[in-house]
Design brief:
Elements (H helix, E strand, L loop, with lengths): L3 H10 L4 E4 L9 H5 L5 E4 L3 H13 L4 E6 H6 L1 H10 L5 E6 L2 H5 L7 H11 L4 E3 L6 H14 L3 E6 L1
Parallel strand pairs: 1-2, 1-3, 3-4, 4-6, 5-6
Helix pairs in contact: 1-8, 3-5
C-alpha cells in the first residue's frame, strides 16, 4: 500500500484540496504525512457516510476532495454514496482500503470484507480499479486525472 509521503505527492500533483477520511486500519498510517502538508486540508469524520456527504458538499462548492475510507465503511455508507454519485452525479474520487485482502488472497483470513467489496461497488455501479502494491505517486495521480477527465466517480481499491 502507498505510504504517506507517496500519497501526498500524488494528491498535490492533482491539486486535491481536501482529504475527507476516517483514519482506521492502514489508512491511518498516512496521518503524519497528511497533517504536515499545509496545502491539504485533512477532515476527519465519525462515519463514512458523513465522509461521502462532506466530500459531495466540497465538490459542489468548487473544491477538489478525495475520500479515504475502509471497505467496512463503504458498506455502511450506501445511501450517501447513491445520492452523491447517482442523484447528484458528482465525480467522487475515493480511496478504499480493503481490509484483510492480502491475507484472504493467501487463504489466511476468513474476513468477508474482501468477498463483498467488489460486488457492493458493482451493485452501486461505482467504477473501481485495484491499485497495485507497487504503485507510485504517478500511478495514483494518473487514476485521479482519468476520473477527472471522464467526469465520473472512481473508487481506487487498496489491498490491506
Amino acid at each position: 500500500m502507498l505510504d504517506g509521503p507517496t500519497l501526498v505527492r500524488a494528491l498535490l500533483a492533482c491539486d486535491v484540496t481536501h482529504v475527507v477520511w476516517l483514519p482506521d486500519s492502514h489508512l491511518g498510517q498516512w496521518e503524519n504525512a497528511l497533517r504536515s502538508e499545509p496545502r491539504l486540508q485533512l477532515l476527519r469524520v465519525a462515519r463514512e457516510g458523513e465522509a461521502i456527504a462532506l466530500a459531495g458538499g466540497l465538490l459542489l462548492g468548487g473544491k477538489r476532495p478525495v475520500v479515504a475510507i475502509q471497505c467496512t465503511g463503504l458498506f455502511e455508507a450506501g445511501d450517501a454514496l447513491r445520492n452523491m454519485i447517482h442523484d447528484l452525479k458528482l465525480p467522487l474520487f475515493m480511496l478504499i482500503g480493503v481490509r484483510s485482502h492480502l491475507a484472504y488472497q493467501r487463504g489466511q483470513s476468513n474476513d468477508t470484507c474482501p468477498v463483498f467489496t467488489v460486488p457492493i461497488l458493482n451493485a452501486w455501479q461505482l467504477p473501481h480499479v485495484w491499485l497495485a502494491e507497487s504503485a507510485t505517486a504517478d500511478d495514483l495521480a494518473a487514476l485521479h486525472r482519468r476520473a477527472e477527465t471522464s467526469g465520473k466517480p472512481l473508487a481506487v481499491l487498496l489491498s490491506e
